[in-house]
Amino acid sequence: MVNSTKDNTILEIKHLKMYFPVTKGLLRRKVADVKAVDDISFTITKGQTLGLVGESGCGKTTVGRCILRVYKPTDGQIIFKGQDIAKLPVKKMRPLRRDLQLIFQDPYGSLDPRQSAGSIIREPLQVQNIYSTKREFDKRVEELFIIVGLDPRMVDRYPHEFSGGQRQRIGIARALACQPQFIVCDEPISALDVSIQAQIINLLQDLQAKFGLTYLFVAHDLSVVRHISDQVAVMYLGHIVEITDWKELYENPLHPYTQALLSAVPIPQPIIERKRQRIILRGEVPSPLNPPPGCTFHPRCELASKECQESTPPLRKITDNHEVACFKV
Amino acid sequence: MTRLLEVINLKTQYNTTDGIVKAVDDVSYYVDEGEIIGLVGESGCGKSVSQLSVMQLISTPGKITGGEVIFEGQDILKYGANSNEMRTIRGGKISMVFQEPMTSLNPVLTVCRQLTESLELHLKMDKHLSRQRSIELLELVGIPDAKKRIDNYPHQFSGGMRQRVMIAIALSCNPKIVIADEPTTALDVTTQAQLFEVMTRMVKQIKTTLVIVTHNLGVVARYVDRVYVMYAGKIVETGTAEDIFIHPAHPYTIALIKSVPRLDEPRGRKLVPILGIPPNLINMPPYCAFRPRCAYREQCKHEESPPMRHIDGDHYIRCYLDVKEVAW
Asked: Would you say residue B322 lies in a domain?
């Protein structure tokens, strides 16, 4: 599978499906599937950021984990630099892990409390066997500390001695250790204090400019996604309902769900905010175990008609780079 | 408007082995009838503890060490946490919506039991009547099929629904004041919008007063009449929502507003992060707690903690400097 890649595409997802089996009884018979990710496709251009937004349970984290092959996708292709990695065996996957890294949401749970900061960052280097002497390893660790804005004298400290923002920097240094090309940022700032979030956003942007990184930025905060993304995909119950560039999405959202989502984000300026029209959705996100037939959004949608209850709207092109999955657009 | 609650120089400390943590340090604020006020700040700034102190729900090693909480003309701190007077106020006249809907409901009791509990205690309703009233309350906060759902256990509800139940419980006895402590933090944005809509509607319907404790500036801008900004146990700025968001005067408030991206701004602005990290509340310096992180610290030569200073109208700041800068 080398043919389909255009020059600048670093990652292409084609019809990705990730179903988790639901088992029951002593023999763990499969009784149903949770369709966490159901037939999604997108591409990411090298050096750019794709923001993936949606509410909890919509499958956005699962997409990230499939790309990193934490999960083995049920179906579909994940073409990274011309190679389909969706079904690659674990052994063949290992060298590729240098290029694909992850920044976790929770800087408290994602660092081993019994390992020093330096050793946490050194670990991926050792796994990938990048250097041969201790001095080289130490030098690289020190370099990484400086890159993410930590004092290299703190290499021997343990995670509990760092603040939340500093811990997130350790997580970022670990992800950068092997000079990856592609990083999945899974809600990297949502566990941090408001005053710290801007530090980490700026760091991620600086690193992208410096090392030409490509990000998949998974988040639920739409203002942050607008700030950092080039392309934005909106997910709802395992499907992408709208995907376009950031400007188009925020200025001309077409899918009713995107519109509701955007109107629910408050703007910290009382005069503007009190004048804004708000769309309050009915009900809640249905369980992915038992999604509604047809368009999964139809029970909450103002525009829903019979057609929406019967068939699933495909993602279709409205303009060159604006795709929406809705019959009513 | 009548003054409903006035907190004067409230102090709450935690005695730990490492030293004294002044979680709430000389906090004063007031709430008028029918208002919605907002208390904003980062985690650990004492905003929740100040509210728990008003309710006298502080447990050891915490202790309320000073101040007055005047509610309906009486200093309720004098009653003591375990007094009968405080019991009638707590949950009856002042009620609270707690932060985590997942953990603040009792998992082994039905929703009905948890709702009727306060109705029977405070309003002396009998079983039948309190059940009727509970069903009404659940319908009011937007739980579909309330007649059946009332006999469910909390785990059978989603996060948003559980928070609706919490709101119903808080509103059940027609309280004078509802304190909502980060009511939507663990929830999705569309659910957040739904819940705030429910809460503000209820405030109008049953004419109660709402105190929203949150770290989300946007929420405050939308719903709140007056704002208190807290930092390191102290209120550093207060004013109307317009004062705080359009003419902020305290360096911390200015920095906070500058550090978050906004949906309506032109893109490409570099976010201005606040330097350093939130302070450790043990052994605080005698000078302004924000000074180590303040963008204007060079200009400030004062060695004491600044007092609250009047600017105009309802607008007060705890800072020596006159920072003239538009937030954004």
From this structure: no
B153 domain-assigned: yes
Residues B142 and B184 in one domain: yes
Chain B positions in Cβ-Cβ contact with residue A285 (cut-off 8 Å): 188
pTM for the model stands at: 0.87
A 10 A CB-CB count for B254 gives 23
**Is residue B229 assigned to a domain?**
no
Residue A157's pLDDT is 93
Give the DSSP H/E element, type plus range, for residue A205.
helix A194-211
pLDDT tens digit string along B196-215?
888 888 888 888 899 999 98
Domain count along chain B: 2
Are B27 and B174 contained in the same domain?
Answer: yes
Confirm whether B325 is domain-assigned.
no
Query: CATH code at B190?
Result: 3.40.50.300
A56, A202, A223 ranked by CB distance to B273: nearest: A202
Rg, C-alpha atoms of chain A: 21
Let me know whether B188 and B245 are in one domain: no
DSSP conformation letters of A261-313: HHHHS--S-HHHHHH----PPPS-PPPTTSPPSSSTTGGG-SS--HHHHHSPP
| Average pLDDT of the residues in A205-232 | 94
pLDDT value of residue A4: 44
Average pLDDT of span A97-111: 90
Size of interface A-B (CB pairs under 8 A): 125
What amino acid occupies position B241? A
Q: Do A264 and B193 touch (CB under 8 A)?
A: yes
CB of B304 less than 8 A from some CB of A: no
B218 to A199: CB separation less than 8 angstroms, yes or no: no
pLDDT of residue A290: 84
Domain hosting residue B113, numbered range:
3-224
What mean pLDDT is predicted for residues B165-192?
Answer: 87
- The closest of B68, B120, B73 to B92, measured between CA atoms, is B120
**Strand pairing of A75-80 and B209-214?**
unpaired
Closest residue, chain B, to A271 (C-alpha): B242
